[in-house]
């Protein structure tokens, strides 16, 4: 019992610190976050308290209003924090990979399975929807890189659907903040064992760049890429 209480006490400061850091991060991008949260909480509590006085139960409705005000504030804070996070991530290298890493259970993601010397990349996610190739970088350069990777997947996995997504704000592209939702909307056509088999086959394919030392920082201009781009895990 004492151990559980100690663990809980140690976890609470961590949660509070995380909330505080999230608030500070959100406030840098959303200056009105404090006023918005205060307004949501006060208005929600005030409405229920007023209803309580009208029906003669101010205490009960006041307590209910307080709980709902806290819930509404938490929901609004979560959404605005998420929007602020995506706003800061958008346009940054690897932003799509970060979103894929948090897509949820049932998905296996592999960042940078294909890359060109301009550092446009294709990431891969495998789930019950099949194989999803997610590309980020310059849309014009990505088309050939994405097409080559999709052709390879279709050749190896004839019985597995292969989808492709380009992250961006242009026509036919998917905004970063909608990437997770887009993947989750794909029809689920594979069973759990089929997903496992697909992942096993992908791992068995090996890694083209596993034994090749990669330079740190920007790629040297004179370095030639293998045809189809390097495959990285």
TrEMBL record:
According to the record, the segments passing through the membrane are: 33-53, 59-78
Which keywords fit this entry according to its UniProt record? Membrane, Transmembrane, Transmembrane helix
Which spans does this entry mark as compositional bias, Low complexity? Answer: 219-233
Annotated segments matching region Disordered: 209-233
According to UniProt, the name of this protein is DUF4191 domain-containing protein
Q: Which organism is it from?
A: Streptomyces jeddahensis
């Amino acid at each position: 019992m004492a151990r559980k209480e100690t663990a809980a006490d140690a976890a609470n400061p961590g949660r509070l610190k995380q909330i505080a850091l999230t608030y500070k991060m959100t406030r840098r991008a959303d200056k009105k976050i404090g006023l918005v949260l205060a307004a949501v909480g006060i208005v929600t509590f005030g409405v229920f308290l007023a209803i309580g006085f009208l029906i003669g139960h101010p205490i009960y409705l006041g307590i209910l209003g307080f709980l709902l005000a806290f819930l509404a504030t938490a929901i609004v804070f979560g959404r605005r924090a998420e929007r602020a996070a995506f706003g800061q991530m958008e346009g940054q290298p690897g932003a799509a990979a970060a979103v894929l890493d948090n897509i949820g259970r049932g998905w296996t993601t592999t960042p940078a399975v294909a890359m060109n010397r301009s550092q446009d990349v294709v990431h891969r996610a495998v789930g019950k929807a099949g194989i999803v190739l997610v590309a980020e970088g310059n849309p014009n350069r990505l088309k050939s890189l994405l097409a080559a990777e999709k052709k390879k997947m279709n050749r190896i996995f004839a019985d597995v659907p292969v989808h492709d997504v380009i992250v961006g704000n242009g026509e036919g592209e998917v905004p970063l903040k909608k990437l997770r939702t887009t993947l989750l909307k794909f029809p689920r056509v594979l069973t759990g064992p089929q997903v496992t088999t697909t992942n096993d086959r992908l791992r068995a394919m090996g890694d083209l760049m596993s034994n090749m030392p990669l330079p740190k920082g920007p790629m040297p201009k004179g370095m030639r890429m293998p045809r189809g781009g390097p495959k990285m895990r």
